[in-house]
Amino acid sequence: MTDDPFRYGEIAAANSLSDVYAMGGRPIIALNIVCFPTSCEPVSVLQQILEGGAGKVAEARAMLAGGHSVQDEEPKYGLVVFGEVEKSEMWTVGTARPGDLLLLTKPVGTGIAVTAIKAGLFAAEHAMAAELSMAKLNAVPSLLSTELRRAVTSATDLTGFGLASHSLDLASEGTALEIDCSKIPLLPGIAEMADMGFIPAGSYENKKYIGEKVINCSPMGRFAEDIVFDPQTSGGMLIAAPPETVEKIAAVIKTGFPDTAVIGRFTEGKGELTLI
C-alpha cells in the first residue's frame, strides 16, 4: 500500500477506529496490536508505525493505553478500540427502509489504487490522494447534531467487502437498493487504472460472494462493477436516512468530507442491488 511506516500506522489506526464511528459512537480507549519481524526489520520502522497510529488516536481524542506485541514474519498493526454511544443514537446495519436515501462520505477506489501503486504505474499525486483518504478518520457522528444522528436509519463503514456488499448490509427485510454509479465519488486516476486492468484479486472474490444479487443496468458497463466490488481499505461511511433529512445530513458532513454524495435509494424488494 505504502512504503512509509508512519503512513501505514495512520491508515491502520484510522481503519480500526472506524468501527466505533460506524455505530454512531466516539472512541475512548485504544490498545495497540503489533506483529513485527525484529529479525529483519529495524525497530525504527516499528517506532514510526506506532507514532502514526498514536497520532490518529490522539486526533480521535481517545487514550492509547498500551497493547500487545508478538514476533511475526511480516509487519501487522492495528488497534482494539473501546467506544461509547447513547443507546437512542446508536447506528445499526439491516435497518434501512424503502424510501431511504444512501450517502457515501469518501471516494471509492482504494483497491484499484493499491494495485496500481504496487505495479509502480500510479501517478505520485494520485497515490498521495489515496493515502490521505485512507488515513482520514471517519469521525462523522461528531459533526452531526443529536437530531440528525437520530435521523440516521442505518450505517456502516466501507471496507474490504466493497460497496455492493456493505450497502446491501444496510437494507432491512423486504428492501432492495438502487445505486446511481455516476454519483459515486472516485479517487483520481481510478478509471484509467481500471481500464488498464489493475483490478485487485479481492474484487473477484467480492463478486463471487455477492454478485448474484447485483443487477448491472449502468451505462458505465463493466466499470460500474469494478467500482462496487472494489475492496476498500479504510473507506468512507455509508449512511441511510429518510429523504426529508438526508440533504441536511449531507450538507453538514460535507464540511468535513467534501466528496460526500447521495448515491442511491432503498426500494421495496428482496435484497437485490441494481446499478443504474
Characterization of the model:
The protein is an alpha/beta fold. It folds into two domains: 5-85, PurM-like, N-terminal domain (60s Ribosomal Protein L30, Chain: A, 2-Layer Sandwich), CATH 3.30.1330; 91-275, Phosphoribosyl-aminoimidazole Synthetase, Chain A, domain 2 (Alpha-Beta Complex), CATH 3.90.650.10. It is 38% helix and 22% strand. The strands form two sheets. Strands 5-8-4-9-6-10-7 form a seven-stranded mixed β-sheet, sandwiched between helices. A three-stranded mixed β-sheet has the order 2-1-3, with helices on one face. Strand 1, helix 2 (43-59) and strand 2 form a beta-alpha-beta unit. Helix 1 (5-21) crosses helix 4 (124-135). The chain is globular, with a radius of gyration of 19 Å. The two termini are 31 Å apart. The model has no long low-confidence stretch (mean pLDDT 96).
Features:
alpha/beta, 60s Ribosomal Protein L30, Chain: A, Phosphoribosyl-aminoimidazole Synthetase, Chain A, domain 2, 2 domains, 7-stranded mixed beta sheet, 38% helix, 22% strand, globular
